[in-house]
Amino acid sequence: MKVFFSIALLLFIGVHAEEVKEEDGVLVLTKANFKEVLEKNEYVLVEFYAPWCGHCKALAPEYAKAAKILADKESNIKLGKVDATEESDLAEEFQVRGYPTLKFFRSGSPIEYSGGRQADDIVAWLGKKTGPPAKELDSVEVAEEFLKENNVAVVGFFSNRDSDEAKAFLSTANSVDDYPFGITSNEDVYKKYEASCGKVILFKQFDDGKAVFEGKMEEAELKKFVTAQAMPLVVDFNHDSAQKIFGGDIKSHLLMFLSKEAGHFEKYAEPAKEVAKKFREQILFVSINADEEDHQRILEFFGMKKEEIPSMRIIQLQEDMAKFKPESSELTPEVIEAFVKKFLDGKLKQHLLSQELPEDWDKTPVKTLVATNFDDVAFDVGKDVFVEFYAPWCGHCKQLAPIFDQLGEKFKDSKTVVVAKMDATANELEHTKITSFPTIKLYKKGDNGVVDFNGERTLEGFTKFLESGGLEDAAGVPDVEEVPVDEDDEHKKDEL
Length: 496
Known about the structure:
Layout: H1 2-17, E1 22-23, E2 26-28, H2 31-40, E3 43-49, H3 54-72, E4 77-83, H4 88-93, E5 101-106, E6 109-112, H5 119-130, E7 134-136, H6 140-148, E8 152-157, H7 164-175, E9 181-184, H8 187-192, E10 200-204, E11 210-212, H9 219-229, E12 234-236, H10 239-247, E13 252-258, H11 264-278, E14 284-289, H12 296-301, E15 311-316, E16 322-324, H13 333-344, E17 366-369, H14 371-378, E18 384-390, H15 395-410, E19 417-423, E20 436-437, E21 439-443, E22 450-452, H16 459-467, E23 483-484
């Protein structure tokens, strides 16, 4: 009997020793309990994080909030987290290459999480992956609760679910993960929300409260409507909203750089909403609080100083990013509207960054170029102009500097060869886009043809290339690697 009791006690202790811990409603997963948790739960969203990761720290409260929302709903969806720095075997097994990485496990099978980073976004995405594309709103009470618990919700009013319009709505609901959709044929719900059969209404707990779809009932048109109407008229830029701003379908953004401390948001952002309403499917209005330290690099990216606040810019996120600066520094609704209209009409010229031209730019063997003197020097038909595009922070560029100085010294007395350099982080050219550092190009005399240098970055390699007029690269592997513009650890540009 004692033996039996001892075995039972050990088993009891063993079972409870393996109990999964929770932190703020989120399961703490390890290699020891990971498989068991997936076996016991049909749906598990797992965050692989690093304790030192800033993005992970920003996600943590929203992730915990999402876990609470699901628990309050008595949902069977669980949220878990894995410290990937401790559980490296799990991180490797699921090919975690950055932090945070979120994966959704349905009956043990993982798929990539593609939703937002706010609690409502997480819950909405999970709802789409675990239930019908649109929730059935069969009473006023159900509809009221549905709208109350969601910051943004899209409702279709269809009595005939087999109609082409209803099918287009449900197809849209199935393909849009960021927002919850509901559908109803209940007459009381129609009356409550003053809707007629065949209507689609987007309800939101901000701005005008709702938007009624007036377009052709097709998936592409519905998605465009939801994308435009689900965002506030003026979106506050922060870590949580960045993904929706830059990952959305609207690729032209009016950025308003403001100071909350100075009361600019009330003075300028609020009046701008009426202008934003006129162009909301063409251009997204975004406010950026210039007081925040994290946003200083965005100002630098636009070549702006704090003294210029309040100010605005337009950015176009196409294959080649373009920036536009207004003529006036005013931020009245009239000035903002005129600026947007000129942009949409194609009447604005790109705003390109340029440093002041140093007085001694041509006094050293390696000439200093900025945006304003670049064309005059590089496109001199009588000379071969060899230019290094560099970044001050780039380690590879620093390694290359003494070799380039030697090259400049070698050709300083030449009448037909110019060796030059340009800081490509502070100077921009309309005709040349730099994607990595260092980038080296030869602007040929005569026809002004441009030849990329891809040979060995040595004095001998450069000399051979120049003496052949850009026809011959030196053989061998480059001894200095290129650094992509967006991959430097300390100077990584934001999504802007």
